[in-house]
Amino acid sequence: MSESKFNFMLNRRQAIALGLGSAATVALAGCSGGSGSDDKAAGGDSSEGSYKVAMIMSGTITDGGWDQGHYESLKRAIESHPKWEMLEPKENTPDADAATAAQSYVDQGVDLIIGNGNQFASDWAEVVADAEGNDKVHFLITNTNPTSEMADYKSLAKVETVLPNFKQTGALAGVVAGLMTKTNSIGFIGGMKLPSTEAKYAAYLAAAQKINPEIKGQYNFEAGFTDASLGTKLTENWISTNNVDVMWGDASAVDNGSRQALESAGADTHFDIAQPIDIAGADQPTVVTSTVTDWKIDQAMDEIEKGEFGDGKVITADMSNGGISLGKFSDKVPEDVQAKIKELAEQIKSDSFVTDAEVEAIASTL
């Protein structure tokens, strides 16, 4: 079995109950406050040396998870690309408004329009088709496989997608959990039972069991993404009945509730691995490190500047290009353990630590 089986798409169409906001009016005030590109925003030529990028989001930039992770990736890309200006993100965009939001940015002549999830793939098909003759506008959709999810597009000449390596993400969390647990019982909360969620958990447990075959995993794949109290209840139950002492989550706000339960149980003995942003610090006493995803928006910007963007190419976010990484460690991770984690991370990067067969053996039981 090839590793590609574990790089699944994340479909969040039904993951979050939306219905807020309207795309009838899309905010176009630049976050950078730039004022010298109005002509370009109205349809000027990118050859003048400046570009605009806009992101359309299903949630908010402060959700502590999926949407914030995308927003931070965009900010990092902007910091390394002085020719680019970031427009104010369009948050809380329901499916019904997604096409209108994208079209508004097309009308403004925005160079790169980003959709932060594959729910936008079907929503934008007509907008992309109508923009076919527009040499200026480009579309980037994350967590999307163009072969399986964009088969109805007339052309992908103006489109690229991004897919992370979920096997690497899960394995990184797994080695941390395997080295930090004292009870040999670890947990995982996912927002929905999706192929990507299962792939992450399977790699997480497989990697932890490479550290210690006695480690057991507890999981829930149906927690949603918004109810922090559910994360608290699930984690409290696992702590009391299964002696779980390390958690990893893939459920945005629900993960915050899980951390509350860990802290109540004792922040010196119960630990959390955060994702997809780096949040370890004094205000997160249970977080020992984070699995971080960067959506490689910088690469898309580079390709646009070079005239190489499009044709349905897939940008892979993995450890080789900084798309997948571990964040900073808290001081609760001993130095020798940190060194071991870094050593094993190199093996994960080279795909020599945990095999596809070992991951599949766990995935087949879910």
Question: Would you spell out the secondary-structure blueprint of this structure?
Answer:
Layout: H1 38-41, E1 51-56, H2 66-79, E2 84-86, H3 95-107, E3 112-115, H4 119-123, H5 125-130, E4 138-142, H6 146-149, E5 159-164, H7 166-180, E6 185-190, H8 195-211, E7 216-220, H9 228-242, E8 246-250, H10 253-266, E9 271-274, E10 287-293, H11 297-306, E11 313-317, E12 324-326, H12 335-349, H13 356-363
Parallel strand pairs: 1-2, 1-3, 3-4, 4-5, 5-11, 6-7, 6-8, 8-9, 9-10
Antiparallel strand pairs: 10-12
Annotation keywords:
6-stranded mixed β-sheet; single chain; 13 helices; alpha/beta; Rossmann fold; 366 residues; 6-stranded parallel β-sheet; 2 domains
**Cross-sheet strand order for the largest sheet:** 2-1-3-4-5-11
Q: In one word, what is the shape?
A: elongated
* H/E series: HEHEHEHHEHEHEHEHEHEEHEEHH
Number of strands: 12
Largest sheet: 6 strands, parallel
How many distinct helices? Answer: 13
CATH class of the largest domain: Alpha Beta
The CATH architecture of the largest domain can be named as 3-Layer(aba) Sandwich
Q: Rg, please?
A: 21 Å
Taking all residues together, what is the mean pLDDT? 88
CATH topology of the largest domain: Rossmann fold
Which ranges are low-confidence, i.e. pLDDT below 50, for 5 or more consecutive residues? 1-5, 7-47
Could you describe the 3D structure shown?
This protein is an alpha/beta fold and about 375 residues long. It has 2 domains: about 120 residues, Response regulator (Rossmann fold, 3-Layer(aba) Sandwich); about 160 residues, Rossmann fold, CATH 3.40.50. The protein contains 13 helices and 12 strands. Helix 2 crosses helix 11, helix 7 packs antiparallel against helix 12 and helix 9 packs across helix 10. The two termini are about 20 Å apart.
